[in-house]
Amino acid sequence: MDPKQIEEIMEIIKEFFPENTSIAISDTNEYLYYQASKKVDLKIKPGDPIKEGSAAHKALNYGQKISSYIEPDVFGVAYYGMSIPLMEEGETKGAITAIFPQKPSAFLTNYITIKIDDCWYPIKHDQVIYLETQLRKTFVKTMSREGYHRLNLSDLELFLAPDSFIRCHRSYIVNIDYIDEIQPDSHSTFLLIMKDGTRIPVSQRYASYFRRSLGF
């Protein structure tokens, strides 16, 4: 990951998180960037290896967004971490981790704003059926509207509630409330039939996490 990519990521993150958030960016082995806040500082330095049990370590191991309380025995400071793997052509290249002194409550907006033609529309998260990667943007589908968000799927995933949204494929995140049926499928592991009739695959990469999350 080059400095320009890190700079672009940081510009996106600053729009969403408050000042008391520490941010760490890593590849699959070590930290590349760290910005501490006044509220919580893990004393990470670029080049430090990713510690086992940390939020970044969990996200890289699971290949999935995680939100978790991390005990103080990892860094010497307890924190709440939200971490998401960075994907490139289906491969994990690193992780972005937001570090909080405690579990965040309502600072993240419950809306996602999509563009349709030349207008923008705020959509509540609970109205979103699924999100799909299309041409480096994210296609957002609801029962009444569909449009595009400027962030890509991996960037946007960090701001979605993990108890409602689940990644099932490198190109799809679905709202669990809108899954109508889960079918076995010969071309992928499972096929999701959404309440709007859309058929979405669950790829082998995400199958184990998907089954564990939904308890089947």
UniProtKB/TrEMBL annotation:
* Boundaries of every HTH LytTR-type domain copy: 112-216
Keywords in alphabetical order, please: DNA-binding
Pfam families the record matches: LytTR (PF04397)
Q: Name one GO molecular function term.
A: phosphorelay response regulator activity
Concerning InterPro entries, the annotation shows: LytR-like (IPR046947), LytTR_DNA-bd_dom (IPR007492)
Entry protein name = LytR family transcriptional regulator
